Amino acid sequence: MNKAVMNTAAMSTTSARPSARVVHRAAGTAPATWAMGSLFERLISSRESGSLDIAVVTQPPGTATPLHRHTREAEEFFLLEGTMTYRAGEETFHLGAGDFVWLPAGLPHAFRVTGAVPVRFIGFAQPGGLFDLYDEVGIPAAEHRLPGTDGQTPDVEVPKWNRVGSTYGLEAVGPPLDDDA
Question: CB–CB of 85/93 below 8 Å?
């Protein structure tokens, strides 16, 4: 291939995605939010990627979501540390480090962090935009750690979820998983 053809190919690739750029986050530098008594470290947002949200999520033992569904996004979780019980539709999974689960949009699901240590997982949402909800209802994390008394209390945060969740396609459809799920 001659040099002129190679340059033309490179230019057409670049012009097709003029806003595309590399995103690098050094360890401990991702924008971080405290929500649900948890730490959400945003690795990339759909505003940066065009289609995908990715976050490292740390949640303390006992954290449980109500049964809910996302009408717009598929969600994926890859566990790094800890354990959780995950209900997806009619199936229940007991997840540990190295486990992965993919949830199609619209599928009712809930989880509970089990065990004595926090769970850490990489959460994905596609198409992106879902993690903007956590930023809206949560608060900027003062540090990359679980919140303590400097986080929001449920009586402050839960009304925010109820007020704005539906604008993100979030629908609560049932109670959280039992402790023994």
Answer: yes
Q: Cα 82 to chain center, whole Å?
A: 16
* Closest by Cα among 102, 125, 106, 99 to 40: 125
> Could you read off the pLDDT of 93-128 as tens digits, one per residue?
999 999 999 999 999 999 999 999 999 999 999 999
CA atoms of 45 and 91, how far apart (whole Å): 30
Bond before 60 cis per omega within 30 degrees = no
End-to-end CA distance of the chain: 61
Q: Identify the architecture of domain 37-167 in CATH.
A: Sandwich (2.60)
- Is-above-0.90 flag for pTM? no
Domain positions in the chain are: 37-167
Cα dihedral sign for 37, 41, 46, 48? positive
DSSP state letters, 7-43:
HHHHHHHHHHSTT-------TT-S-EEEETTEEEEEE
